[in-house]
Write a structure and sequence with these properties.
Elements: H1 4-14, H2 17-34, E1 44-47, E2 54-58, H3 70-87, H4 90-105, H5 129-148, H6 155-169, E3 176-186, E4 190-201, H7 231-247, H8 251-257
Antiparallel strand pairs: 1-2, 3-4
């Protein structure tokens, strides 16, 4: 769903409606087969390549085939919101809204989603900050879309709640610049000490802005990756910040929040 942006953009730039039709058909197919009646999502749908019939619905990174992988739910929110902005088809907007409402209704009090919404949860359940930030961005798109239709929107406050929670709990330790010490021998003055190359000291933290992301915690995964940094989380963290600036939502709110 997130890749459809490229097809819609290319269709506009090349004046090629065929690309737009492909993107729209993909969104309709995804909506039909990936979205459950309660607006949760299947992670993977396996289609027969010759007939288009559904062969299986399963997970590859979530808890189980019948569970709701939180990053997949976030992809749905943002993907269908973006598709609505290109097509103005309110069916896609409604799908984004119901997926967002499911996400919010299953969000823990602390505002950071678990890696899977319907996995057994306790104090050691991995979180996924990438799901949080992807959903956060989608909700900002939803907020603008809903306001554009003259309706009230809960999605800006929801996005700010998630963002504030992530910033309060999942920022990596601050890095710092440092210079190495270089010994320089000379015949006249013996050994002198000079500053060497400028380096970045990451300390004991990951080389990411955010921690607390989970790539894969599926029971049968060849390798699990949980509670670490992840590029999706950092990318959407920056995208959310820029989007808030574009919306005129900024300093005074976050000064109070932090």
């Amino acid at each position: 769903m997130l890749n459809l942006d490229l097809l819609f953009w290319a269709s506009t730039e090349l004046r090629d409606p065929r690309l737009r039709d492909i993107a729209t058909a993909h969104a309709r197919t995804t909506r039909q087969h990936h979205i459950r009646e309660d607006s949760s999502t299947f992670h993977v749908v396996n289609f027969d390549q010759h007939t288009g019939n559904v062969k299986a619905k399963m997970t590859n990174q979530g808890y189980s085939d019948s569970s709701c992988w939180s990053r997949g739910q976030a992809w749905a929110i943002t993907g269908f919101a973006q598709t609505y902005l290109w097509t103005r088809n309110t069916t896609f907007l409604e799908t984004a809204r119901t997926c967002a409402d499911y996400f919010l209704s299953h969000l823990p009090f602390n505002g950071i989603p678990p890696w899977d919404f319907t996995c057994p949860q306790d104090a050691n359940t991995p979180t996924d900050t990438s799901a949080a930030l992807i959903a956060c961005y989608g909700m900002l798109l939803l907020h603008e879309a809903v306001l554009g239709l003259g309706e009230s929107s809960p999605y800006l406050n929801a996005a700010l709640h998630i963002l504030t929670s992530v910033c309060g709990n999942s920022l990596s330790p601050l890095a710092r610049f440092r210079t190495s010490r270089v010994n320089v021998p000379s015949a006249e003055h013996g050994i002198s000490h000079e500053s060497g190359d400028l380096e970045v000291d990451m300390g004991m933290g990951p080389e990411t802005i955010l921690e607390g992301a989970t790539i894969n915690n599926y029971e049968f995964a060849p390798r699990k990756w949980a509670m670490h940094g992840l590029v999706y989380a950092d990318y959407y963290f920056l995208l959310v910040g820029n989007k808030l600036l574009d919306m005129g939502v900024g300093g005074q709110i976050f000064d109070k929040a932090f």
